[in-house]
Amino acid sequence: MTTLKIDDYIFEPYIDRLKISERTQVLANEMAQAEFDKKPVFLVIMTGAYVFAADLLRLLDFTCEVRFIRVKSYAGMQSTGHFQIESDRLENLEDRNIIILEDIVDTGRTITKIKEVLATKNPKTIQICSLLSKPSAHLSPIDIQYLGFEIPDEFVIGYGLDYNDQGRNLPDIWKVKP
Q1: 116-141, pLDDT tens digit by residue?
Q2: Which of 51, 79, 102, 153 is the most exposed, having the fewest neighbouring CB atoms within 10 Å of its CB?
Q3: Model's pTM, two decimal places?
């Protein structure tokens, strides 16, 4: 398949599943070295990060906790600038090492707000692991400790990322065709 149509948008292949798998293994190896004895709490940002998180976490062979939080900030292809977090799983984080698992860091508003909320829980550390990042779209500098791919400011779907809840199931990442 060379293109994919969802509503009025045409998408074309961008990052294939083999490249994603290879990069995920590299991230897992880096985490194994740095986090092995820290018993981190992984906070998986739903819904977009679920595929990436499942693949990454299965590659880790150290003790950790996995929790899920839901954050809403998108409508269609645009970040709304409004932030809503849905979770009752943010308890008992004091003096813990937290790693946020995110699908994509776009403007950075969402990840910044999550870090602000988590900071009130007095963790030992807060780190970010994101499959994708769009540095040209960041509104301020964002320190991502574990990063899959930097991409230009283009809209992407697949591998958990969606357009109006469509395309999450695609095993590769697709971008809007110009």
Answers
A1: 999 999 999 999 999 999 999 999 99
A2: 153
A3: 0.91
- Say whether the peptide bond before residue 47 is cis (omega within 30 degrees of 0): yes
Question: pLDDT, tens digit, for every residue of 140-162?
Answer: 999 999 999 999 999 999 999 99
Which run of H or of E encompasses 5?
strand 4-6
- Give the orientation angle of helix 17-35 with respect to helix 50-57, to 10 degrees: 60
| Bridge partners of residue 136, in order along the sequence | none
Decide if 106 is catalytic.
Answer: yes
Q: In 10 A of CB 67, how many CB atoms? A: 17
103 φ, ψ (degrees, to nearest 5):
-80, -45
Quick one: tokens of 29? 């190896």
Class of domain 4-176: alpha beta
Question: Which tokens sit at 33?
Answer: 């070295």
- Give the largest CA-CA distance in the chain: 49
